[in-house]
Amino acid sequence: MGTFLIVLLVSLLLLIFMILKLKVHPVLAMFIVAIGMGVGFGNTLLDTMGLINEGFGTTLTGIGITIILGAILAMGIQDIRATDAISHFFNKLFKGKNLELAPALTGFFVSIPVFSDVTMILLAPVASKIAYLKKISMSTMTAFTGLGLVLTHGLVPPTPGILATAITLKAELGFVVFWGLIVSLISFFGTWLLLRKWTEKEFIAPLDKFLGKGESTDYNPEVAATLETSAATSKNELKASTPSFFLAFLPILLPVLFIASASFANALLEEGTWLHTLLVTLGDKTVALFSGVLVVMFLGFMYKQNVYSSSMKESNGEINQSTPFLYILVETWVTRALIVGILPLLITAMSGAMGNIIKTNEMVDKLATSVASTNILPIFLPYLIALVLMSAVGSMTMSALTTAAIVVPMMPLLGISPVAATLSIGAGTLAISHLNNSGFWILIKFFNLTTKQGFKYITVPTLIASIIAIITITIINSFGLI
């Protein structure tokens, strides 16, 4: 047991050192650490390579196509201007009050199938314009837009980390989606109510490049009036050039509904009936994501000009108005999606490889028995492990999958359901987002914060949301609902 714990601890510290200090790419760093860990556990080099290949391949089998389809869906959502339509809906819903919720809730829902880093970039111009027009500090915009993105990324499949965790723990995917959404909403609004006044105390202006004005970041009434007039005169234009809220939301909503319906069908309907078979088929994660891709491609035909305009910007001159439209949908979107999706795909797969080295070691069972015999409430164990790993490694996906590998042998002793354990891990990955997390730097760069301000308005809100999330999960679990 002692040797196992020393090798595990040294391996994790080496991983942190390689990524943070030596700036080794996470995929290569995890591969090297997995080899050292396997050999350190007493496996031969050949056996270690076999375990790495097995873990890598198994993880890819579970989530590979899903991640690719999610990336294609992201390209479609971007090009048809779905985020503009959803944000416009929330602007109208809140009637000019608490408008920081417009980009925040847009990000909350868009980040379910779309990688949060991509959504951050998509929403930065929207948040900046609202902030400037309504004199809202970017500290407020950052805190809640970033929070909305991170919550569903960490708790609601089909984003890679929580999806792979659910598969590893054999959790019913639809129930993870359903309860993940509920926990995310409670955590978001709980954090918003606690921190909204605090975030308003420091005023931070938005970046000039999102406002179309000069170098000064001071509030300029003439510029604001111009922007207001432009916004007012283009309302009809916006309606004509963007999808309705329902159509914009449909590619996101449909996969989530399909996946959730499959779990409820398994729980409530008799196996073998036509309705059970239909819902389970539609609820397969690959089928569900593909349905979202088909819908967004159909919407692309409805909003061709938006797609052409966006694709021409993204292609550096390779796409123009004479390019066949179908080529953009089935080639350009896929190419862009693979560029965006390949890194999360490889990081997730290599996390699975490293996790396989851990969970196949016979000492994990003894560790599970020792940990499970402590006085810590069982639901908190996966949460605490994920929290520590997230704060150390900085990758939600990596920390979730590593935690899942450690927790798998503990499951019979912990006495909690796979859904509860999956959500507990997801809640742990929300905490302590700081310098070693890519999303932290993207938010700082696009939302005009200093590093010190990033700690205040990114790290603190996500930590509080994480605590609210695990408390909510614990209460739900105590009632036997998960």
Give a written overview of the molecule.
This protein is mainly α and 482 residues long. It has 23 helices and no strands. The protein starts with a helix and ends with a helix. The model has no long low-confidence stretch (mean pLDDT 85).
Coarse shape: globular
Class derived from helix and strand content: mainly alpha
Q: Tell me the distance between the termini.
A: 32 Å
Count of strand segments: 0
Helix content: over 70%
Mean pLDDT: 85
Brief digest:
The chain is built from 23 helices and no strands. With 482 residues, it is mainly α.
Which descriptors would you attach to this protein?
single chain; 482 residues; mainly alpha
Question: How does the SSE layout of this entry go?
Answer:
Elements lengths: L1 H19 L5 H15 L4 H35 L2 H13 L6 H10 L5 H18 L4 H18 L4 H9 L4 H27 L21 H13 L1 H7 L3 H24 L5 H9 L2 H18 L1 H11 L10 H35 L3 H10 L7 H14 L2 H12 L3 H4 L3 H12 L8 H10 L3 H28 L4
Helix pairs in contact: 1-2, 2-3, 2-16, 3-8, 3-14, 3-16, 4-5, 4-12, 5-6, 5-7, 6-7, 6-22, 7-9, 7-22, 7-23, 8-19, 8-21, 9-12, 9-21, 9-23, 12-13, 12-14, 15-16, 16-19, 18-19, 18-21, 19-21, 21-23, 22-23
